[in-house]
Amino acid sequence: MATASTADIRPAINAALVRRLVDTQFPQWADSPLELVDPAGSDHVIYRLGEGLSVRLPRHAGAIGQAEKESEWLPRLAPQLPLAIPVPVAVGEPDFGYPWRWAVSRWLAGEVATVEALADSSGAAVELAEFLTALQRFAPGDMPAAEARDELTARPLADRDRATRAAIADVDGAFDAAAMTALWDAALSAPGWDRPPVWFHGDFHTGNLLTVDGHLSAVIDFGGFGIGDPACDLTIAFTLMSEASRAAFRAALGVDDATWTRGRGWALATGLNAYTSYAAVNPKVAAQTTRQITEALIG
After folding, report:
1. Whole-Å CA distances, 131 to 46, 183, 218
2. In terms of C-beta density within 10 A (0-12 exposed, 13-18 middle, 19 or more buried), how is residue 231 classed?
3. How many domains does the chain divide into?
């Protein structure tokens, strides 16, 4: 977990550094070429290593610990799920001025899922519901011990209250501030998850889905993987789906009104966070998050 002293660290990561880390710690891959994956996301720099591997290095302190988490849990989880997920191969150690552990995983082929290809697909929506159902069924028998569970328990939606209300005020004019406030108030006042905690992906949006030949093939980036209220994973319904496919997704997953409302709150809060952080400098993020916020308001 990041501390105050590490929270602002942003190490310089380039091909020369990654080459030295790989060659020194895993000499069996010293002859494998490195190719930067771009764009890689806001949390990690990713390089393809040869034909069959990828190297992921945290960009900031908020992403540290993910290599160890995925190495421990994904091999146990993979046999239970209907879509492919990353296969951890090794965890690298800090060196050459790079301060954190990093991961080597099997390369997963595919294209990032797009709204254009899948938004209206009720079949894809049901597939995603089946994935989440299988993920949630992994609990409670495979829950970690209480002390380890603390590290995997997500922060509640209410922890985002101050930042979300500030973001609503910041974007008033671009979006309907009154409608956003009403949704946010409803999400915070909705009854909480009152069943046993379940596993959730934690960052379940379009950018973390892969397709092959237009069909869903894999779910990636389990850095937010944890235990608790699964409402956060409903974000996918607002980043990817249309109203019709969203209805199919909700029916297949069997989501009650309170959880759905909290899920809309998660989609609003995370969409606003990304919009205020990146939209001014990244037109693609602006378009994606505008859609996410708009769809969350529709419900």
Report:
1. 25, 27, 10
2. buried
3. 2
